[in-house]
């Protein structure tokens, strides 16, 4: 059985591939499917563009990149055998990988590297210099002839002949080593510096003329024998063939086929579960706290976008975390669509309506939303505070914290951890080394930093626990949100509905309180400590805060009695009643604002207090002050002073106001900035293959039509009556004929048809090219000839 001829181009190679092979190509290089290529030729053109090839190279692991460098070094075409010899290991499987990605084409005995790959790998692939013919090509014909003479070769003043002879001689096995046998001291030292790259070195007056008889010093000795070449007025280069000889014929020191081992540490399962569940609960709590904090007074949006340094610092203080954690909290909330710029004339960062929906979900569902948005996002909170190209600090929620590589690195790091046994952690340093091996052309300091930041962020979110991938994180990684929520729910302690109120004015919750109960309790008490149990502390300020929020003493005590398993201790009841009794002794209403109290001495203290200076208080009557500030500001300052003011209505009655929760309008979550087309689904892959095949068939049919037209006989012009007679004769004999035809636009064409009838100025015929019955106007037929005539 005859073998198929070798493809002459990448397009022919792609055309000959099976549908399954094209599906693999589109899967591994998704940019080739957007938009759908119209034929194999179009696909080959797109696959060899610089941008697409660059993306493909960045996806290669170390062995694939090494083999690509070997192919760039070897002459084109080459063979798998030659590649394996130059790499130092069997390269058939890696060559097949490059062929699947259309970076390489042709059979194993005639491999062609795509020219864009060669260009992108640069002039010094694997640290090797240019070929001898290029490296020595700067020399004049006379100097080339001198070099031939010095090496004992036949002299030629034809530059092409001279370069061919020099290249063949110096590339021959053993030539370089034979020349170095009598090399003076220092020559091998120079070569050792250039052998493994970079292959260039700085030398003064590098282009000076040297001969073997007059050479002095190691560099002159090498130049006079063609073992070094001049690449510029002050630069020398080690030619590629010489470098390969010094490397023992190998392009790399060693084939790097295996990824570096991860430095792992086993963890106790309960430690992983406990750490991840605790972190998940804390992350959700902090995002909830942020929503409540910004819902009462949202910070302003910077003119250039983002959150100011002072506002981040205030947010960190309010959440009782450091600024780095605060940046992580606000960025997580923003990516999840829970806070946003409200879009007003003086914009502020406020919770979105989605926050109100989110906060009503149970904890596992809330966590799945936060962690899922982080996993698919491209924001890098750890870059907050770092300097940009203009030496300006980057702000939280600013426009320059997106990095497309963040998404790739997160998936890669978690994928490596998922590949380990459950409850096993890996060091960030070993993860950096593994990712460098997986994508060496993407290696950078930012990418290395992203590995550590990914571990940090994932640990804070509870995706990791004690450095190991948690069960919930493992499910989230495969996009199984239901399983992720169930895994976290199983790891979390069951929410409680009761607390232990104690006589020392503390409350102890033996587990996480249900969300609505925790919120209500935190309006009356402050959290003193967290852990397996949460301890709350009641004091005058915390109770006053609850009263300021609109609760009465009876409502607060009824809530505490319902929450407590042991009733309300007497000291706590006394505290609540006493604060309520004093609450509102000072009243604030509208004038600009006025301050009223039954005790004149209390008002005198306020006038004298330096903390009230900004209010510009002045006495109107013994029990009345007026202020040059609005009532809300007066209330805020007096609460800081500690006098428990209350608002007063126009009728003089106490006004208990629940604070208004501020919200932005509906806002979608910010889109990730990936710079990469999405991975094509099964339907798109099938459509891409079908489109290519259809385009190839159209091209083949067009070629067949051209071939048939070339075979058609001459069609001399004839009058309509002659054409009709010949056509009717063909109908009677059932013979195919060629007709010349001019369409309505004046375009002339030829058709191979079998006439079925001629009547009423119309010809009905079977068109062999169209494979269908068509009708032609007799007056547009320019000539008729019998097929095969």
User: Helix share of residues?
Assistant: 40-55%
What is the count of β-strands? 26
How many independent structural domains? Answer: 5
Shape assignment: extended
Our Rg estimate from Cα atoms comes to 41 Å
Total helical segments: 33
The fraction of residues assigned to DSSP E strands is 5-15%
Please give the order of strands in the largest beta sheet: 18-19-17-16-20-21
**First-to-last CA distance:** 35 Å
Class derived from helix and strand content? alpha+beta
Outline the biggest β-sheet. 6 strands, mixed
**pLDDT < 50 runs, ≥5 residues:** none
Mean pLDDT: 88
Biased composition (Pro residues): 667-680
Domain WYL: 725-784
Biased composition (Basic and acidic residues): 701-711
Protein name: Helicase XPB/Ssl2 N-terminal domain-containing protein
Structure notes:
- With 789 residues, this protein is of the alpha+beta class.
- The chain folds into five domains: 132-246, no CATH class; 267-491, no CATH class; 500-581, no CATH class; 584-655; 714-786, SH3 type barrels (Roll), CATH 2.30.30.100.
- It is built from 33 helices and 26 strands.
- Helix 16 crosses helix 20, helix 20 crosses helix 25 (481-491) and helix 22 (428-438) packs across helix 23.
- The two termini are 35 Å apart.
List the helices and strands and how they pair.
Blueprint: H1 10-15, H2 19-28, H3 40-47, H4 50-58, H5 62-73, H6 80-87, H7 92-100, E1 104-105, E2 112-113, H8 115-120, H9 132-135, H10 141-150, H11 159-171, H12 175-180, H13 187-195, E3 200-202, H14 217-223, E4 229-232, E5 235-237, H15 240-246, E6 264-266, H16 269-296, H17 309-319, H18 323-335, E7 339-341, E8 349-351, H19 353-360, H20 363-375, H21 404-418, E9 424-426, H22 428-438, H23 445-461, E10 464-465, E11 468-469, H24 471-477, H25 481-491, E12 500-501, E13 506-509, H26 515-522, E14 526-529, E15 534-537, H27 540-548, H28 553-563, H29 570-582, E16 586-589, E17 593-597, H30 600-608, E18 618-621, E19 624-627, H31 631-641, E20 645-648, E21 654-655, H32 682-711, H33 720-733, E22 737-742, E23 748-759, E24 762-767, E25 772-777, E26 781-786
Parallel strand pairs: 16-20
Antiparallel strand pairs: 1-2, 3-5, 4-5, 6-9, 7-8, 10-11, 12-13, 13-15, 14-15, 16-17, 17-19, 18-19, 20-21, 22-23, 22-26, 23-24, 24-25
Helix pairs in contact: 2-32, 3-32, 5-7, 10-11, 16-18, 16-20, 17-18, 20-25, 21-23, 22-23, 24-25, 27-29
Protein name: Helicase XPB/Ssl2 N-terminal domain-containing protein
Biased composition (Basic and acidic residues): 701-711
Domain WYL: 725-784
